[in-house]
Amino acid sequence: MLRTTSWCQSRTLRIRIDRHSCRLLSELFIISKQAVKGLTSVRSYLELLQMGDDEDTKSIRSTKSSKSKKDDKGGIEDDEDERLDFILAYFTKSYRLKQERWSKMMAIEENKKLILNFLNNPKAKFMIITITTAGLLTPFTQFNSAIKNKYTYFIKKKEEVVTMENFVDVVIFGDMAGKPIEELAVLLDTVLLPLLGNAGNQKGWPQVVADDVVAHVRTFKNAVEQLRGAMKSQTILPMPQGMSRLYEAINNFEESDGATIDLVLKASLESAVTKWANVCNEILKQSSTIAFAGDNQPTPSREVEFWNARLKNLEFIYDQLRDPRVKQVAKMWSPESWRLEMFAST
Asked: Which InterPro entries has this protein been placed in (predicted)?
């Protein structure tokens, strides 16, 4: 009865810790996402405030004042929309944009309606403006194949009409590269993982929660890396957590004559090797007959393209397997290696 009670208590504690760690990870991602967006908006706004003495801003003001004067017929043109001037000032600073490109975009009635609809319609929540491959500044309401370069996004936080007074409070805006997956991979590798994996940022956390958070971030990073490779028709082998401790674990194992074993690293390596084997098997099972799916009738060139792509992918996998750390893992699993005891004895 005592054993059953202690087992139930430990299981309940483990479930609570798992739930707590998942909730904590979710909150950390939300906070980091909001922080990055908030910093982008504030930085963009402050940069615009400092543009008062820039020549580009002076030219914008002079153009605006000239347009507000009377024309030859004696009529007076309406004052320009200050919100459009704000966006133009941002593009002038971020893209070093000339006024001519902006004028060409606004001269197209469809483009002007799209931008004004985003500003005036509370239901319009998303807009992208970018320079297309044709060199034209063009707005979009969704992602499409024409967006291949740097673009600026505008996202509404609230369903409100955008005014000059509430622009920064209602709209999140900033610049993104044409390859968001690449940026996400860099963000994870250089910001989130070092930030959450730093012991100084884990003060007050239970060790189980800290390890769980880092494990989830690394799993997410591996998923992004695999997606990044799939977009290039390349297979990326996910590296196990704790790979950086491999040589240290081997030295400790050798110096202690097999008494000291890093069980966490052991489990991680076993899981990774199993995944690598499954991935390689799937690649080797691929056949060129997939081109005939859906009653397609491919030309002989498709066959050549398939084998060329497969050759490049296998070479890419081979380069990853030549990593010194991966070679060290392979030695452990070789039958003649005494280090196999590190995995077989537990």
From this structure: DHC (IPR026983), Dynein_heavy_tail (IPR013594)
What number of H helices and E strands is found in the chain? 14, 4
Gap between the Cα atoms of 268 and 252, Å rounded: 17
Written as one letter, the residue type at 158 is K
CA distance 284 to 200: 45
Q: For 235-276, what is each residue's pLDDT tens digit?
A: 888 888 777 778 888 888 778 877 777 777 888 888 888 888
SS3 content of the chain, % helix, strand, coil (to 5): 65, 5, 25
What digits encode the pLDDT tens for the residues 296-342?
Answer: 777 888 888 888 988 898 999 889 888 888 888 777 766 555 444 54
The encoded tokens of residue 41 equal 């908006």
Confirm if 149 and 70 have CB atoms less than 8 A apart: no
Distances (CA, A) of 15 to 2, 29, 42, 145: 20, 21, 40, 45
Phi, psi of 70 (to 5 degrees): -70, 145
